[in-house]
């Protein structure tokens, strides 16, 4: 029955009745019988019923998810991305490369030997000329990211990745790869991703650290859509690294590179707006590079760390056999599905109060109104 509905929907689209055909295809896709290549075909036909590039791209990616080897879907993504790419800016001296977390071989997690799963990158390296990519599975919707180092580091917004430790990237040639979230700064709505992509040419960076009022801005999404505005005059005190814009409508959830009138990169568009206006703020590219250097320094000083999606910091706890981030207390991703126990050697790392250990879990994290804050034991 579902297959017949699918065939009827395709025939209606062929006859030019797009809305009715799309309705039948969506009904057919509710059935679990429609899987694999047939499901991918349905999504490809659904893409023919919409005009918006972002909607077409969404259907193409759903087709690839249903049938990863579907060459028709990959070809259409590649053609669509190539068609909507912004012009490549003139070459300029690229920022210095930064170190990335070392590659490791996956092993089973144990309390004594924590594995940094954020540093595991599989597959061969890709050498390409990609500059802008799309985040397809973010918790808040499709987003944009752009490369800031030749060895595969991208910048996007914290809002785009949320609490994920890895996201799926769509590149301009239609390839889909995994990118690990390696550091984020919630106070700047910034996140860094790491991939196994080597970039031939980066976006040229503006030498200006201070943007002038009314300066023209153009933000670009990975689908090729542009958002135009200017530096918004304001009497408010703007924190270091931010700049106000007159852009109020985003085509995705942020992470878009922002260019000046000379086509040089000046920052990244975020989803942050003023309480009294709809205009969003941008984050300076120089602030982004300052923070990526800070991240690089962290990796040089303490390489055996893992990413905590809770606060965005690099946690040392896993390297010592701990299960909780010492910065925010969140359970580390690699310790989510294992049995966790107290290790008295980690009391110093967590700064636990050693004056009154719990008689049940033996931790000294503390009591509140007679209840252990770690295990819930009720003291009598």
Summarize the structure.
The protein has helices at residues 2-14, 18-29, 36-47, 53-66, 71-84, 158-161, 285-301, 347-350, and strands at residues 126-128, 132-135, 143-147, 153-156, 166-170, 176-185, 190-194, 197-199, 216-220, 226-230, 242-244, 256-259, 265-273, 280-284, 306-307, 314-315, 367-368, 371-372. The chain is of the alpha+beta class and 380 residues long. The chain is globular, with a radius of gyration of 24 Å.
- Output the strand order for the largest sheet: 2-3-4-7-6-5
As a whole number of angstroms, the C-alpha radius of gyration is 24 Å
CATH class of the largest domain: Mainly Alpha
* Helical content band: 10-25%
Shape: globular
Mean pLDDT level: 81
Supply the helix-strand structural class.
Answer: alpha+beta
Classified in CATH, the superfamily of the largest domain is Tetratricopeptide repeat domain
Number of DSSP-assigned strands: 18
Order of helices and strands: HHHHHEEEEHEEEEEEEEEEHEEHEE
Model regions low in confidence, pLDDT < 50 over at least 5 residues = 85-129
**Number of helices, where a helix is a run of at least 4 consecutive DSSP H or I residues:** 8
- Which oligomeric form is depicted? single chain
The second-level CATH architecture of the largest domain is Alpha Horseshoe
Portion in strands:
15-25%
Total domain count? 4
CATH topology of the largest domain: Serine Threonine Protein Phosphatase 5, Tetratricopeptide repeat
Profile the largest sheet. 6 strands, antiparallel, barrel
Cα(first) to Cα(last) distance is 65 Å
